[in-house]
Write a structure and sequence with these properties.
The longest helix is centred in the C-terminal third of the chain and has 18 residues, at 174-191. The protein is globular. β1 (2-11) and β2 (19-29) form a beta hairpin. By secondary structure, it is α/β, with parallel strands linked by helices. The protein is built from ten helices and ten strands. α3 (100-110) runs parallel beside α5 (144-155) and α6 crosses α10. It starts with a strand and ends with a helix. Helix content is 40%, strand content 25%.
Length: 255
């Protein structure tokens, strides 16, 4: 379980240009959830997800994972925390000079895993993401969807309990988005990995998430099951997002 309590993040706090990216955020994400955080550009989505693995340090508040306050972790504790949290990004963030196999082994190399064991684990994960035949290719030789599959395999290398997905399908076309969302749902179901999905797309949230929270100007304005929020939005911000977002294309493609 991830518990976020009164989380605030302020940039340039001591200056007149202080920016409150997160303002008293409170969320509970249960084990096994696919939890969506949605909002417009600049709402604070990415800052929030980067605080969970401490790529961003909160200004105040707490982040509890399985009851442990991780907010002030550093050194070995921080390395172990990040190893237990996989992350995938919009731009894939693959090493262009490494083969697909060696991209997936990279997190294991950081933990000084034996070379043979790391390669075996990587091949196992490439099978999970259906890229067994691409192990010796380089990222430039793959499509965008295939590169994101490599990134997903890499994020799973350390058997994480949590996966953070920061706009993971934003750079992909609709058909490829559907296939990546299907893969993420299968991973969630088969491995029990808790997923936090950051997206500006309500179509993505509707397709994959069991619960969602809507963020606006650094504050959570609505939270609930996906079906509840979509069928009966309470916040004007949520209603505006639903009004402006087309849900048809990804739903039709998924059929």
């Amino acid at each position: 379980m991830i518990e976020i309590q009164h989380l605030c993040k302020t940039y340039n706090a001591s200056s007149e240009t202080a920016h409150h990216a997160l303002d008293d955020v409170n969320l509970t994400i249960n084990d096994g959830d696919i939890f969506g955080i949605i909002g417009a550009s600049g709402a604070g989505k990415s800052t929030l997800v980067r605080c969970i693995n401490l790529l961003e340090r909160p200004t105040s508040g707490k982040i509890l994972i399985d009851g442990r306050d991780v907010t002030d972790f550093s050194g070995k504790q921080l390395l172990e925390l990040r190893a237990s949290i996989g992350m995938i990004f919009q731009n894939f963030s693959l090493f262009q000079q490494r083969t697909v196999l060696r991209n997936v082994t990279f997190p294991l190399e950081l933990r000084h895993e034996a070379k043979g064991n790391a390669a075996a684990r990587a091949r196992e994960l490439l099978e999970v993401v259906e890229l067994s035949d691409k192990a010796d290719r380089y990222p430039s030789q793959l499509s965008g969807g295939q590169q994101q599959r490599v990134a997903i395999a890499r994020a799973l290398a350390n058997n994480p309990k949590i996966m953070l997905c920061d706009e993971a399908t934003s750079a992909l076309d609709t058909r490829t988005t559907v296939s990546i969302l299907k893969l993420l749902k299968e991973i969630n179901a088969s491995l029990g990995v808790t997923m936090v999905v950051i997206t500006h797309s309500l179509a993505v949230a509707k397709k994959i998430c069991n619960r969602i929270a809507v963020i606006d100007a650094g504050r959570i304005v609505e939270e609930g099951t996906t079906s509840e929020v979509f069928s009966n939005p309470q916040s004007p911000v949520t209603r505006e997002l639903i009004k402006n977002d087309s849900l048809s294309s990804i739903e039709e493609e998924a059929e």
